[in-house]
């Protein structure tokens, strides 16, 4: 996969799956803007990548910042051809105690943020073509307890992906969705997403018997952003060690 001369934006690129995606794109020749609310971690990633990367402070819920981001990318590196809508937050709350504010915070970032990104990219790529990769979740394929807003937003990302794929196909812009599950990142580790006996639980839940690494998701994102995927649009691509295929346990 050769990204020489391509300009990419990766939201939520300061750590986890986004940081891995930005690094792999740059290794393969792209010029990458890491866009995130975490400036310190973002600056460290950009320093590690080198001069073909740049950090831009972006809160994905802020419309003006999206315009400023695309302008920054265009003046710094050139017209943007790849957008990875990866930024998200996770909050665990049962429905009965979930406040409207908690629900709306997650939807604003994980759903509205993706809409604003798709819209900005659709405008920027109208004449050049390009690739948009949205990061949903295994929670966008099935229900998960205590993740009502997160699941709703991740299902919405899949829906938006299909609408955008239809609308942007005439402009040679592909739009696809990656659905990770059980990846070892700060999000999973910080949010008490999993209980203390996590290893045993993960092995039981995951046919491949382990957590995934950020680069294993990043490779799928990078493929969908490449010319190798130019006949793929509107698709859901699961990277979850087989979790959404069913439970590996056999009835005794
Ligand atoms: N880790 C997993 O197991 C898993 C599973 C399914 C889906 N995902 C999805 O993968 C993507 C990456 O997750 P991760 O595990 O690397 O998480 P992470 O928390 O490690 O990274 C997410 C990044 O998004 C940034 N971010 C959060 N709110 C933002 C905002 N308002 N504006 C801009 N940036 C913001 C954070 O600062 C952070 O750098 C997310 O969309 C997540 O929902 C992860």
How does this structure look, described?
The model has no long low-confidence stretch (mean pLDDT 95). α1 packs across α8 (214-224), α3 (63-76) packs parallel to α4 and α4 (100-124) runs parallel beside α5 (148-168). 46% of the residues are buried. The protein has a seven-stranded parallel sheet, with helices on both faces. It contains eight helices and seven strands. It has 252 residues and is an alpha/beta fold. α2 links the parallel β2 (31-36) and β3 (53-57). Residues 11-12, 14-18, 36-38, 58-61, 86-89, 109, 135, 137-138, 180-183, 185-188 line the site of nicotinamide-adenine-dinucleotide.
Strand-helix topology:
Blueprint: E1 7-11, H1 16-27, E2 31-36, H2 39-49, E3 53-57, H3 63-76, E4 82-85, H4 100-124, E5 130-135, H5 148-168, E6 173-180, H6 186-190, H7 198-205, H8 214-224, E7 236-239
Parallel strand pairs: 1-2, 1-4, 2-3, 4-5, 5-6, 6-7
Helix pairs in contact: 1-8, 3-4, 4-5
Bound molecules: nicotinamide-adenine-dinucleotide.
